Amino acid sequence: MSTSLVDPPVGATLAAIRAVAPKLAPSERRVADVCVERPRDVAWWSAADVAEHAGTSNATVVRACQNLGFKGFQHLRMLLLRDLGAADTPTTDAEPGAQSGAGLLRAVFTEFANDLTGALAPLEDESFEQAVHALASADRVLVVGNGGSGPSAAAVAIRFLANGRPAEAPADAVIQQLTAGHLTSRDVLLAISGSGLNQVTLRPAEAARAAGATVIGVTSYARSTLVELSDIGLVVGGGSGPWTGPGEMSPVVQVAFLIGLQIAVCRARGGSEEAAAATFKQIVPLINP
């Protein structure tokens, strides 16, 4: 069950843990939770200390670390210490006025910036390249997202369309599933779900897979149902709080990642600048008659 042993970027260790933790065994998940909730303590604790706080054994702590993608507990500790040492900004709790008004706004933006730098830690470069090739060469691209991921799906579909990559993103769940069922082996379904568990999004993914289309899943959790259903899983991390936890940060990461994906796809297809210019000429008369 272990994942890649490549070290996450500086500051991204917690994002890497969050991405894999949901599908660990319950005892191992408790170890991951302790690491995420108390990283400063875990960086200096022994495996026995973590085991005590997680209500499990030393062996489970080591196994959990390995299944999270680390060589072992000491490897995880060194990465946490590295991240703590690299943190050169004061904590948001210590910032004057950080609990209200403009101070709070600046603190939230600072956390967004810090979390974005580590959001790509769980992403596998090979999977991203495969996704770019599939989306660039597909006859038809259907983008599906619901709930909090709905706006992200609509946004990337518009960007694809404006830059010469035809795509569609129906908002209605029934139309999503019916359309997915009519895809072919030459088509791609791009499914977006922060949790990877949204049944409304999973159903079109299942339909597209049954129809023979390539399914690309974008989520924050490596061990999720969406990744299991996908031919290509693209995992990007969420936030670590207190104001940019996964629920708050996921849409920001989604949009940033999908914009990057769209740019890579359209560049691979070529003619993106010309298509964007042509689209602009079509839009201007519509919004400014």
UniProtKB/TrEMBL annotation:
An annotated GO BP: carbohydrate derivative metabolic process
Database matches in Gene3D superfamilies: Glucose-6-phosphate isomerase like protein, domain 1, Winged helix-like DNA-binding domain superfamily/Winged helix DNA-binding domain
Residues covered by the SIS domain: 131-271
Residue span(s) of domain HTH rpiR-type: 11-87
Keyword hit for Cell membrane: no
Domain of life: Bacteria
Entry's Gene Ontology molecular function annotations: carbohydrate derivative binding; DNA binding; DNA-binding transcription factor activity
Alphabetically ordered keywords of this record: DNA-binding, Transcription, Transcription regulation
PROSITE patterns: HTH_RPIR, SIS
Entry protein name: Transcriptional regulator, RpiR family
Organism, as annotated: Rhodococcus wratislaviensis
